[in-house]
Amino acid sequence: MQVTTFVGLDVHKPWINVAALLPGHDTPIEWRIANETQAIRKMLKRVASLTAGDVRYCYEAGPCGYALQRQIISWSEASCMLVAPRSSHASPASASRPIAVTPRGSPFSSAPDCSPRSTLSLRRTKRLETSPERARPA
Description:
Distance between the termini: 56 Å
Number of domains: 1
Oligomer: single chain
Number of strands: 5
CATH class: Alpha Beta
Shape: globular
Strand order of the largest sheet: 3-2-1-4-5
CATH architecture: 2-Layer Sandwich
């Protein structure tokens, strides 16, 4: 049976908060690293040493771009999913409809769902919100 380790990243300009949910554990291991090349490489090695199966990273794309995703993919065997910033935070105007749903039982209760199915759903929602047929009259 293939086990998967899920790693959520909260990326800021000076640092990255890391939360890794190891297979068979109920609570994630959390730590903070500097947002620097060497620290990211060490984090990838640390996570790889903690698990024997697949590793899936997930973080919210921000003003720093996609450099972290490219680093994760090129320096490890892990996959990395990005969540669009506007899709992961519900505004008061859209509070009546869900934007991102966290899977049941996920320890990352404040993190968006990083599954490919959810990401596709978010893209469809965004496309519907911006389509001319759905535009509200001024």
